[in-house]
Amino acid sequence: MLGGFKSPGQDIDAALRLVEDARVLEESGICMLVLEAVPADLAAAITSRAKVPVFGFGSGPRVDGQVLLLHDLIGMFDAFTRRFSKQYVDMGSEVTRAVSAFVQEVEGGAFPGPEHYAQVPPQVSAELERALASPQRRGTQDASSSQQR
Within a domain: residue 143? Predict the structure, then answer.
């Protein structure tokens, strides 16, 4: 990946260096190139010379494909927004709402309800209780469980 949070190639020497870096990377055998925050005209110049697909992340429309992080696209991170990101929906608040509801239901005892967990038939449950309550069974189980610890 070439670029980063600060837009590279802001003077002619830096721009030429970026074009050369892309060429060297391509010669080394890369299968694609990702440009992040590379100015659009510079990204287009790199793309037009590349023999591999070039994807842009805030690098303008004249690349072979666009990259946008899912967390940015659906609004999962609201501390800051990169200038080259676009939020299509505010899922961050929906996730916060859902997690809060989950915590409330767990703490209040509403979740899990019987429809959310497996159960044995009542007959098996009663037989299991009797079997585990018998002194003979309890003594055997206590001895075996203490040996395993």
Answer: no
Run of H or E residues at 46: helix 40-49
Residue 54, beta-bridge partner list: 33
Give the residue numbers marked as catalytic. 36
Structure tokens, 83: 């200038």
- Host domain of residue 103: 91-138
Helix (H, G, I), strand (E, B) or coil at 22: helix
Contact 52, 32 (CB under 8 A): yes
SS3 letters across 65-106: EECCCHHHHCCCCCCCCCCCCCCCCCHHHHHHHHHHHHHHHH
- β pairing state of 54-57 and 33-36: parallel
**Model pTM above 0.70:** no
Tens-digit pLDDT profile for residues 89-140 = 888 889 989 999 999 999 999 988 888 888 889 999 999 999 999 887 655 5
Nearest Cα neighbor of 18 from 57, 53, 47 is 47
CA distance 32 to 53: 5
Residue 56 is assigned to a structural domain of this protein: yes
32, 53 contact by CB (below 8 A): yes
H or E, element range at 55: strand 54-57
